[in-house]
């Protein structure tokens, strides 16, 4: 990755990190994706007593069907159980195919629980979009966003595909404004430097995840 490209990727990477202060919440929601590190970190937070209840949410997308043929939530649940999270502490939401459905279906699943606060566990660069979506679709809960505390290089190594990570970063950044415009999420500020980095990466050909 040349220096100019790296600077723009780092700009987007930093933008999506919300740096929320960790605090106890009523439930931890692991958002399904291609990144099994979400399940790993959800298990770590459960053992750290950040929440007593876990929901894994997610069906499949074209980017995950080969990795998790029985569905993202199912595989995440098994991964967490293998890391010591009791099966009785986990609820499964296996139908969602996007972040809006992750939030909506999880809210429905927990409607008989007194949920006032939620920790959303996601890919590192999904934090801002997950937060904006939850604030729109589940506005009555207090939201904390969390992700594995990886650097960009550590995350790329864990995924094993820099091109994929950059394309996902570009797509998630575009969705911040597009989804707010469509009423799927609350608006989020986007500094001029972030917009400029996004446009340069699109011009460089990182367009696979654009809407």
Automatic annotation (TrEMBL):
It comes from the Bacteria. Residues 38-144 form the DUF218 domain. Pfam families: DUF218 (PF02698). This is Uncharacterized SAM-binding protein YcdF (DUF218 family). It comes from Amycolatopsis thermophila.
